[in-house]
Amino acid sequence: MRAHITIIGSGVNGVIHVGFRQWLRESGSIMGLRVQARNEGEQVKAVIEGEPLSVIGLIKQCRLGPPRARVLDVLAELERERN
Fold first, then answer.
1. CATH number of the domain located at residue range(s) 2-79 in this protein
2. What pTM was estimated for this model as a whole?
3. Domain extents for the chain?
4. Buried (b) or exposed (e) across 8-27, using 16+ Cβ within 10 A?
5. Which residues are within 8 A (CB) of 46 and not within 5 positions of it... i.e. 6 or more apart?
6. How far, in Å, are 13, 16, 28, 63 from residue 58 at the CA level?
7. Percent with pLDDT over 70 in the chain
8. What pairing do the DSSP bridges indicate for beta strands 71-79 and 34-40?
9. Is pLDDT at 18 greater than 80 in this prediction?
10. DSSP 30-63
């Protein structure tokens, strides 16, 4: 499964937290996922690929993020693998 996600920060200027992308990649790696993450303005955009339950689990973790993260919302678009 592949998910395209947008993490929206809260607070002044939509601050999420420095290091969110690294936390996202490391968390995904632990779960056996492939994660590509980038900053886009005041948001973090990412593509997560792997087993469906793990992908959904990481999306749920993004709602909390690492310590000191201020996440307002996580938008996700899921794609199933085509056979």
1. 3.30.70.100
2. 0.87
3. 2-79
4. ebeeeeeebbeebbebbbeb
5. 4, 5, 7, 21, 24, 35, 36, 37, 38
6. 25, 16, 7, 9
7. 90
8. unpaired
9. no
10. HTT-EEEEEEETTEEEEEEES-HHHHHHHHHHHT
